[in-house]
Amino acid sequence: MGASGSLFMLKMNNNNFEGEIPFSLQTCTSLRNIDFGDNRFTGKIPPWIGSIAFLVSTLRLRSNFFVGHIPQQLCNLAYLHILDLAHNSFSGTIPNCLNNLTGLIILDYKIGNLSQLQTLDLSLNHLSGRIPQGLSSLTFLSNLNLSYNNFRGEIPLGNQLRALPDPSIYEGNPLLCGFPVSTNCSNDTSNPKDPNDNGDGNDKLWFCVSMALGFIVGFWGVCSTLIVKKSWRYAYFRWFDDIKDKAALAIAVKAATFQRKL
Question: Which GO terms describe its molecular function (predicted)?
Fold first, then answer.
């Protein structure tokens, strides 16, 4: 296979191939379509795919066991129409493809180089960070699936993403907010507010619990002291009897005074 320099299409999907993508494919510089989907391939996407297969229009690696980051070299695939990496175990952020930068930028990345991209499926991976603002500039993008990852923050605004209003595109990313999902973004878009947050109710509940505990502790504290300390118990009952006698005397005096007035 490595000597097939004129090979235009490599379709190996729906088999049980395993192992890593063979290094010998580097000589297949005329490839236009690569489909390794639905197999048992492992390892990382080799970065040389982006350098030797720059004319590729379809790259389909879905439903395998690939791991690691999405290589920055995929940004060189300027003619790419379909990129399907779903159902793998990719992690990290979506790479920055602006001006062929080589690093991964967590807070500000764009994929503007893939201007011909029509289908992007990254679902069911472990990708994280924010969704690149550059997605909104992909004017040919008609199919998008970012579901079941760990994306966070506000979904980028832009005409192209506004034309894809299906919230299932972003399903399984609970930290995303903004159109078209139901969670609104707060001022801090990196930490969207949990719509089920009930802080005031919890405060009231803890206040009532603390009041009840305080009453119970105080009541039984006094009672246990009277039970243990005999002298205190006698003093308490004497004081209680004095209060009772004084109250009875005051009531009797008031009653006698009232009767005389009649």
Answer: kinase activity
Task: Give the tokens for residue 164.
Answer: 């894809």
Question: What residues contact 44, with CB distance under 8 A and at least 6 apart?
Answer: 20, 66, 67, 68, 69, 71
Q: How far is CA 97 from CA 80, 110, 122, 139, in A?
A: 13, 6, 16, 16
The residue count of the chain comes to 262
Query: Residue-wise over 128-161: b if at least 16 C-beta within 10 A, else e?
Result: bbbbbbbbbbbeebeebbbbbbbbbbbbbeeebb
Is the pLDDT at 249 greater than 80? The verdict is no
Q: Are strands 65-68 and 18-19 parallel, antiparallel or unpaired?
A: unpaired
Q: Is the dihedral of CA 13, 15, 21, 27 positive or negative?
A: negative
Helix (H, G, I), strand (E, B) or coil at 51: helix
- Domains located in the chain, CATH noted: 9-177 (3.80.10.10), 202-261 (no CATH)
Residue 257 has pLDDT above 60, yes or no: yes
DSSP 88: S
What's the CA gap between 7 and 22, in Å, rounded? Answer: 15
- pTM over the 0.90 mark: no
CA distance 48 to 53: 8
